């Protein structure tokens, strides 16, 4: 993918500016962590970024964006709806095809939810729903991944599994994270947001938890 250049992005709610102006460059091959306290503007920045690159991005929103009445398989399959003709998508809705089952099942196996393949999302726990949303983005195979707290409902080992899969599947990503240790381990650049502004932007190798904690 080409580099993404964001210039003077702003956002306002209720007449009050909550983000920006922010300028940010995202280079191919970068794994960027957005860090900062809740309400700092991370989700708003991700949403604005998605508006700029939606044609080449996979998104894991904080609210997950799953269809509760559909199965895990169908929610994951939705990651590639645009890649297939409508008749084929309808066919998969009625009776999942072998090709897609053979692609999606191993992905769910690695995420620890292959036994939920045909279960409706509404029957899942919060962590299982989160992994379903991540599986959908991984299956999409876009140029860039944007994820808003994709491991917030997962315990330590599972969080590492998911972050490892994300790093493996996507060469370029921007991920909002609360967990500083995960940000330092799986991302090579840290962008800290405070009060709607970029307060920190540096390579992970030059940072320690003590450099990031003041943002919280």
From TrEMBL:
InterPro entries, per the entry: AAA+_ATPase, ABC_transporter-like_ATP-bd, P-loop_NTPase
Annotated TM spans: none
Keyword Chloroplast: no
UniProt cross-references to SUPFAM superfamilies, sorted A to Z: P-loop containing nucleoside triphosphate hydrolases (SSF52540)
Superkingdom per UniProt: Bacteria
Keywords noted in UniProt: ATP-binding, Nucleotide-binding
Boundaries of every ABC transporter domain copy: 4-215
PROSITE patterns xref list: ABC_TRANSPORTER_2
GO MF annotations, alphabetized: ATP binding; ATP hydrolysis activity
Name listed for the protein in its UniProt record: ATP-binding cassette domain-containing protein
């Amino acid at each position: 993918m080409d580099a993404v250049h964001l210039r003077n992005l702003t956002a306002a709610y209720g007449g009050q500016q909550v983000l920006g102006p922010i300028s940010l460059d995202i280079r191919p091959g970068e794994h960027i962590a957005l860090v900062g306290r809740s309400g700092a503007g991370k989700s708003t920045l991700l949403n604005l970024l998605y508006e700029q690159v939606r044609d080449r991005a996979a998104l894991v929103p904080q609210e997950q964006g799953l269809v509760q009445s559909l199965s895990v398989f169908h929610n994951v399959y939705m990651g590639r709806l645009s890649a297939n003709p409508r008749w084929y998508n309808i066919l998969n809705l009625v009776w999942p095809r072998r090709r897609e089952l053979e692609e999606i099942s191993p992905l769910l196996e690695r995420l620890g939810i292959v036994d939920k393949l045909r279960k409706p999302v509404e029957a899942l726990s919060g962590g299982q729903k989160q992994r379903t949303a991540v599986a959908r983005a991984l299956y999409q195979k876009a140029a860039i991944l944007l994820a808003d707290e994709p491991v917030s409902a997962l315990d330590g080992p599972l969080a590492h599994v998911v972050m490892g899969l994300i790093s493996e599947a996507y060469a370029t990503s921007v991920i909002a994270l609360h967990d500083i240790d995960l940000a330092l381990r799986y991302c090579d650049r840290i962008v800290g947001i405070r009060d709607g502004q970029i307060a920190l932007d540096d390579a992970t190798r030059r940072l320690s938890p003590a450099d990031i904690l003041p943002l919280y």
